Amino acid sequence: MKKMLTLFLLLIAIFCSSCVLENEEVKIYPLLDNTNEPIIDFLQPWAFYNKTSEELDKHFEELKTRGFKTIIIQNTSKYNKGEPKECFYDSEKSFPLEKKDFHKKIITICNEKNINVICGISSDDYWWSQTSHEFDEETMNMFNEEETFTIGEILAKYKIQGIYYSNEMYSNSEGFIKSWAKNINKIIEYIEKIDPKMPFYLSPFNFSFYGGSEKQKLSFWKEFFQEINFRKFDYFLLQDGFGALSKDPTTKKCEDVYNLNVKIRSLCLEYSKVNFALNIELFASKGLASDDRVNLQKKYANTLGDVIACFSVSHYYIEGGKNEE
User: Fold this and answer.
1) Fewest beta carbons less than 10 Å away: which of 104, 108, 131, 199?
2) Residue 236: helix, strand or coil by DSSP?
């Protein structure tokens, strides 16, 4: 009897073991068809500010034809360590390079084509000198002064559909999130005083140089979502990380990047009100991504958010001349 029982238990163990092995081969996430195509695109002013109204109209007509409903202007002014450098709207402040009518032209054309405009604020080249300032209080106060000045002018002069944070944040284990969260919360509070319903957008990325392990990255994003007082109509557009891969990477590398994004989204859902979506990168470590890779990125993005952003059809496809299959 004991022998029969032992044999029976052994057979169950073998059967269950085979089930586990079989289940390990099954992906834990759905790979959907391209239910949603990207509808948010990015535009950097440096590549467009010298274009005529006719050229811009043609560009945005092409975007509309491709199904885009929103454009993010990456920044509307630039500084270098607090000193004005470039400006692409009608500011009261003096800048060495001024294109005062650029922003108005974009908004006018987009209004005619029913394309939403999300306005990037100021960026500062000194942001990337982090080893010099480590985002100390004095530096962050300087950035905040530039940013809130720009927000105040933009919201007073133009009718737009959102504010985009132009200085790019990234995962790191250096403790920068403390300064960043304090500053972002100030900015959200400032926007709310002017227009409580104005959405706030940002598009950070994973940076292996500052804390490259998955554990370090997830620890950063957990604190990020815990510390920033996002609202339910704000948008977190995570750069999907494929731009660091080749134009045709291996399946394993694609799945590794995607699975990290899945975990970051889970932290977002647990600790924040912000809307999570991916900003898919159309570039590669050398050149541009293949059509197959972009199609895979779109499939992944469909599993993680209700909208998809991309960088950038405006630059690589329409202006760059790459044709979609």
Assistant:
1) 131
2) strand
